[in-house]
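Two records follow; treat each independently.
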Amino acid sequence: MRIERKHGIVVLYHRGQISTPPQRITRATAPRPVIKPRMQAVVQRYLATRRVTDEPCTVLGFDTTTYKFMTWIAQTHPQVETWVEVTREQLIAYAEAMKTLISPQTGKPLGVVSRRGQLSRLSVFLEDIATWGWEDAPQRPLFVKGDLPKRLQRIPRYIPEQELDRLLMTIRALPCPFQRAALLTARWSGARREEIGRLSLECLDRYPDGTARLYLPAGKTKRERIVPLNEEAARAIEEVQALRKQLAIERGFPDRLTGIETRYLFVRHGKLL
């Protein structure tokens, strides 16, 4: 019954009988317990400020990072009630304690990249609220770039040609034209996964000399881009465009950044892939 109802909503949306696009069903997460009310109030104000300009995933990162630190401070320094009372020594101790934390995804201790990312967000949060002069905020930066865990700087390496050939042979053999076009676009354009998922139906045209060019939507950088595209990837996109344009009765979806109703390229059975 749930599947039939979901498909029914999709049909009603594309027929114009309802205005709300169909949404994916996600599991609700249990609300977190409030640990430090005054610290949490500053965090919520900060997240509201960040939501005006930042991507949802960025805001979620700040939310998760600050909550982990508040959980640790409640266990190790229960007398601390505000961000003003947080000291540099406590932050250094937290950075050291993170080496023993276990990742729920891998079951292994957190790696340097994970620790550096979380500590960097915590540093930015503390620096921002101090700079903005908020109440219950530190008076100066407590954790600077030099305190972050050092990351191994690797020399970029390309996929060996024989391995890349095997990979491309597998991609070309995919029976699904949507998957094939998406992967070939990723291979030849360098676009982010999210940018490829939001390509419009009219994303492809040609330079005067006949070279294909791809219009990438604004994403994390808030800027649209145009990139030349390999002919193999262009043909794969044109195949999907031909399939999509056979469906005359179909509405677009409101773009998450612009709000403009957009007919996306990677849509199947009325649902955004």
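The next record belongs to a different protein.
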Amino acid sequence: MAIMPIPGFFDPDRVYQVWRVPYEKRAVEAREWAVQHAVEPASADKVRTWLLLVDIQNTFCIPGFELYVGGRSGRGAVDDSRRLCEFIYRNLHRITRITATMDTHRAMQVFHAIFLVDGDGKHPSAYTTVSAQEVHSGRWRFNPELASHFGISPEEGQARLVYYTERLAEKGKYALTIWPYHAMLGGIGHALVSSVEEAVFFHSVARYSPPHFEVKGDRPFTEHYSVIGPEVELGPRGTVWGRHNDRFVAMLKGVERLVIAGEAKSHCVAWTIADLLSDLRREDPALVNKIYLLEDCTSPVVVPGTDFTDRADEAFASFAEAGMNLVKSTDDFLGS
């Protein structure tokens, strides 16, 4: 079978909504679907396909949530989620395993307003960029009221903020950005998009292939856009702020194809791919050809005054030049 039909319960008009997945019902239907369409367990796959879903969470994908990724059309993440669900259902028999990254935050982190204060004790507004120069000058300082929470002195907190913004400047990426509170652990924004969660659950039962979840972003003193590693791994005096995730290269060696989709194309998706590419260039450059990027299942950040579309497209063009495959969810690139 080239592609599979889409189950009748899937409603493309609900992908922008949050709702409870009827697990028991879907589990029964998934096993019936597998029997009806002669879908074998994933363990029988001779050609193994790994689907990596980057941060397809309500906080990024549902209109009205904290960091909804609308792209230039305003429907970016909604349309991405619909196409992604359809891709999973159509290729249910070909997808061996699914990994979902989960951006995971708490209030007191370096990219949230509560972490910083100005000379009057006021916090920065969302989307403020904080440069190393502004931290040095005292325009923005570590909030001393948080020091006891971290078990450090206010001076140490300031030293860490100085160190972090300096490292970001040295790396030449974005300056520290104050984001709205988002992907809060325990909150509804942290959860997978309901329609996507349903598709992942259906796949897991139909193919006897449990999904794998990668938590990232819960370290207080560093941002963590890429699931491969944080923006800064070590703080002053060698304090560990986060660790490089070496499992992805090892996992890629065990499959024939890695398909990547998610949000946002300009940030967590692009930086995950870039970090993976760097690892592969060190470990085994030939593995780059195994990677397929679903261009129509990812959108860039576009907010008033800032449009990252061109930068995201340039990043994807560089990935293609490096040997990765740019595809659409409707392309029959997985073969029979």
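Discussion point: The longest strand covers residues 97-103. How would you locate this feature using only the token line?
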